[in-house]
């Protein structure tokens, strides 16, 4: 594992978004002082500063930012400086009305919120690149600079644009991809519903329509949108790299987030940064673990940064619960446990006005008083992260992998399907199974090298290219354990069914054929007999499966397919494949895959144990995500080691208070 890619930070990054433009200059010195007190060493500055940096078109005003950066440099706080293009100033919409994005129904966005621009607007792009150029020229050599933060959460609010410019760009993109209209007509199956195109300018982005748009057109539009946003990012990044080839450049990702294929973006980010906002009341710890594992897997060779999280409440859910005492710390250390070398917040100081004034921050409205719980926890976390300095740069090794594919996500959730399958939720079933066994999981592309994994899951892999199906089959044939779930291997990259019996390209590896399926309405299930005679309920989807070499390990116990397989096992080459023909609940899934999925460390429910390693040492994270104290027996590698957080030696077990944490390593 290479050293952390922020060369100017000797330890784990700690801090948050810093928006000094919302405050009088007299507050800035206090900010710097408080940052030192809290152990903050990195802040993201300028993300939403465009209107304050370019007051009128082409008239830049950098004086205030100079002062802010100088103050931070003097205080020893590094800066991840934004190129400030996340939200254009109101003058842009006035001067260039076509810079605003256009929704599916043709209605345009207006200024007054944020991110109302179209990534396909030439005017937006020109102004954004000019601003980036001006910022890069002025600050590339500033002593506070540690990294560049490009734009902000691309596509977070705008996930489509149907402006004339976007439409023209879509046509150009299609032309480049298909070269001839014949090829496009074929790929889009336009023989259906009289959709045959005779000229490129007959094609539209998938707009408001009386009924379903062509699914291949929708899928290509999803690709086009993703690539359009990526192209904008690459242009912004190129300007920054030209001025400072050695400074890392990144942008912040989200999870679960469907519109952008982050796997393609990741190769253009010098480190992965992402924003995690689990609902403190609704989301169990496995939910944030899922996000961390996915983000780490995008660049497994590098530590990532948790770029934003809330100290306690957010403002944007209908009901915003707080994080309980200790919960923010446990969730922060969970990020580190899963590969983060940075823990940051939105935002440093809680806004006094504006739409996010009730979003929590590191410095609350009350100010930084020692009696204030949030501030106390913020300063406490600074101390903890300093104590975890030896962890920085260490890696995470996973024994299992889950295939996760954005193109499949886009295709699977298009309308006119047998059932509404929520891809991220189905994938979560398998991640949760592993999480509860303390088994670390990587998320991989269907064409990835799988040879390092003991077991690979491919849930609801509806869109599956023949070459990727071969990759999965080859993994099993060579001795791997491959678990596939319902509605997999159904269509190719153009949403065209692979004929001859589902799942065409996986049929041999799975040793079965799916004849038909039943979409099950929410709340309805089909009884399934498990090994040993117990029954469970299959939900969402039920398939009629015929065995072609595989053995049934569970069978449906009702409907006309009673007695037919609901789960199977098949010896394939030197390995095994498993198939699940319905959605099982957690208990049934654990039962069916018990011998298939290895176990990590044993821990009480709600306690997470995971490891990071460098060449020399193992760091064992023991995190209690429950509201009760627990005693946790330690895995062998952690017995007799020292808790880096307390400096105390541990024996065979460790006692943790509610939301208590230990990070154990040999001294
Ligand atoms: C993020 C965004 C921040 C802030 C935060 C609030 O999506 O990047 O600017 O709005 O949400 O939770």
Plain-language structure description:
This protein is 29% helix and 21% strand. It is built from 17 helices and 28 strands. Strands 12, 13, 14, 15, 16, 17, 18, 19, 20, 21 and 22 form an eleven-stranded mixed beta sheet that branches. Strands 7-6-5-2-1-11-10-9-8 form a nine-stranded parallel beta sheet. Strands 23-24-28-26 form a four-stranded antiparallel beta sheet, covered by helices on one side. Helix 11 (327-337) links the parallel strand 10 (304-308) and strand 11. The protein is globular and about 75 Å long. The mean pLDDT is 97. Beta-D-galactopyranose is lined by residues 152-153, 156, 275, 277, 308, 314, 346, 356, 359.
Give a concise summary.
The chain has 667 residues and is of the alpha/beta class.
Count of discrete alpha- or pi-helical segments spanning 4 or more residues = 17
Point out poorly predicted stretches. none
Number of β-strand runs = 28
Q: State which percent range the strand residues make up.
A: 15-25%
User: Residue share in helices?
Assistant: 25-40%
Task: Calculate the mean pLDDT score and round it.
Answer: 97
The main pleated sheet reads as: 11 strands, mixed
Ligands present: beta-D-galactopyranose
Shape, per Cα inertia axes: globular
How far apart are the termini? 21 Å
**Whole-number radius of gyration?**
26 Å
Structural class: alpha/beta
């Amino acid at each position: 594992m290479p050293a952390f890619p922020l060369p100017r930070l000797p330890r784990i990054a700690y801090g948050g978004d810093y928006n000094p433009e919302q405050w009088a200059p007299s507050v800035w010195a206090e900010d710097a002082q408080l940052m030192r007190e809290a152990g903050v060493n990195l802040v993201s500055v300028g993300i939403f500063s465009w209107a304050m940096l370019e007051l009128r078109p082409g008239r830049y005003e950098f004086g205030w930012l100079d002062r802010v950066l100088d103050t931070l440099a003097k205080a020893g706080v590094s800066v991840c400086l934004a190129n400030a293009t996340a939200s254009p100033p109101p003058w842009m919409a006035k001067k260039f009305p076509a810079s605003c994005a256009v929704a599916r129904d043709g209605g345009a966005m207006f200024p007054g919120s944020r991110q109302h621009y179209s990534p396909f607007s030439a005017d937006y792009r020109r102004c954004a690149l000019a601003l980036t150029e001006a910022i890069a020229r002025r600050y590339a050599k500033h002593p506070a600079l540690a990294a560049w933060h490009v734009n902000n959460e691309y596509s977070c609010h705008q996930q489509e644009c149907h402006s004339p410019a976007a439409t023209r760009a879509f046509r150009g993109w299609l032309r480049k991809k298909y070269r001839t209209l014949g090829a496009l007509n074929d790929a889009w199956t336009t023989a259906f519903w009289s959709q045959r195109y005779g000229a490129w300018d007959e094609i539209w982005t998938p707009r408001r329509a009386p009924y379903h748009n062509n699914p291949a057109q929708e899928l290509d539009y999803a690709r086009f949108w993703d690539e359009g946003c990526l192209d904008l990012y690459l242009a912004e990044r190129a300007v920054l790299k030209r001025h400072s080839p050695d400074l890392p450049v990144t942008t912040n990702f989200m999870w679960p987030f469907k519109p952008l294929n982050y796997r393609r973006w990741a190769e253009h980010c010098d480190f992965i940064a992402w924003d995690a906002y689990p609902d403190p009341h609704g989301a169990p710890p496995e939910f944030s673990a899922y996000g961390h594992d996915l983000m780490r897997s995008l660049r497994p060779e590098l530590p990532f940064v948790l770029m934003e999280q809330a100290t306690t409440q957010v403002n944007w859910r209908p009901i915003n619960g707080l994080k309980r005492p200790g919960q923010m710390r446990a969730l922060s250390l969970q990020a580190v446990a899963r590969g983060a070398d940075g823990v940051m917040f939105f935002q440093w100081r809680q806004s006094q006005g504006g739409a996010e004034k009730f979003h929590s921050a590191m410095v609350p409205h009350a100010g930084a008083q020692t009696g204030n719980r949030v501030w106390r926890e913020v300063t406490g976390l600074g101390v903890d992260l300093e104590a975890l300095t030896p962890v920085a740069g260490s890696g995470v090794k996973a024994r299992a992998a889950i295939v996760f594919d954005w193109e499949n996500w886009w295709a699977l959730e298009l309308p006119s399907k047998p059932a509404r399958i929520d891809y991220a939720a189905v994938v979560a079933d398998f991640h949760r199974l592993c999480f509860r066994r303390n088994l670390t999981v990587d998320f991989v592309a269907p064409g990835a090298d799988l040879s390092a994994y003991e077991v690979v899951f491919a849930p609801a892999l509806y869109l599956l290219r023949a070459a990727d199906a071969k990759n999965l089959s080859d993994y099993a044939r060579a001795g791997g354990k491959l678990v596939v779930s319902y509605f997999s291997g159904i269509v190719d990259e153009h949403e065209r069914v692979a004929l001859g019996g589902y799942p065409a390209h996986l049929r041999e590896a799975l040793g079965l054929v799916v004849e038909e399926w039943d979409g099950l309405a929410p709340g309805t299930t089909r009884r399934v007999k498990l090994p040993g005679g117990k029954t469970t309920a299959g939900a969402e989807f039920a398939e009629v499966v015929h065995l072609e070499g595989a053995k049934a390990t569970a069978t449906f116990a009702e409907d006309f397919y009673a007695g037919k397989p609901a789960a199977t096992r098949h010896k394939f080459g030197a390995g095994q494949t498993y198939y699940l023909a319905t959605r099982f609940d957690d208990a049934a899934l654990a039962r069916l895959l018990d011998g298939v999925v290895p176990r990590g460390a044993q821990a009480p429910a709600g306690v997470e144990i995971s490891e990071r390693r460098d060449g020399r040492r193992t760091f064992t994270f023991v995190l209690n995500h429950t509201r009760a104290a627990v005693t946790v027996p330690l895995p062998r590698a952690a017995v007799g080691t020292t808790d880096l957080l307390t400096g105390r030696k541990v024996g065979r077990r460790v006692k943790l208070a509610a939301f208590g944490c230990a990070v154990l390593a040999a001294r």
